[in-house]
Amino acid sequence: MDNITHEVRLAHWAEIVKQCQNRPEGMSASTWLKQNGIAIKNYYYWQRRVRNEVFDQVTSVATVDSPKNEMTFAEVPAELIPGTTVDAEDMNPVPLPDAIIKTGRMEIQIHNSLSPILLKSIMEVAVHAR
């Protein structure tokens, strides 16, 4: 098979594979193939060929763009999610409390996700703490 014929067939089957993958939700591939008059063995043969071709293209681009054993880094600016702050020790985002109760040397930070039972237990202990 010459190169042009191969490219045309590959493009044709790549479109069929794409259409099959975008079939209606809940419809099996074999049902879609039967409805479209496509032999299951042919489909899976060409699906494998299409995937291999894409893989070969991606790996050839990757090897051309970056030499082996060379590591590169890119700085990615971190943005806090609204409603969070950063823990000074481990630099992980921490949700801001929804309420803070302060009395003397004690501070209790309360989040909306706190269960009422746990809040009641905390308050009972806090009342007796000095």
What's the topology here?
Layout lengths: L2 H19 L7 H7 L4 H26 L18 E3 L6 E3 L3 E5 L2 E5 L5 H13 L2
Antiparallel strand pairs: 1-2, 3-4
Structure at a glance:
This protein has about 130 residues and is α+β, with helices and mostly antiparallel strands. The chain is built from 4 helices and 4 strands, in the order H-H-H-E-E-E-E-H. It is elongated and about 85 Å long.
Describe the structure.
This protein has about 130 residues and is α+β, with helices and mostly antiparallel strands. About 50% of the residues lie in helices and about 10% in strands. The strands form two sheets. Strands 1-2 form a two-stranded antiparallel sheet. The longest helix has 26 residues. The model has no long low-confidence stretch (mean pLDDT about 80).
Descriptive terms for the model:
alpha+beta, two-stranded antiparallel sheet, 4 helices, 4 strands, elongated, 130 residues
**Shape type:** elongated
Largest sheet: 2 strands, antiparallel
Order of helices and strands: HHHEEEEH
Distance between the termini: 87 Å
Q: Helicity range of the residues?
A: 40-55%
* H/I helix tally: 4
* Structural Rg: 30 Å
**Unreliable residue stretches:** none
pLDDT averaged over residues: 79
What fraction strand?
5-15%
Question: What is the β-strand count?
Answer: 4
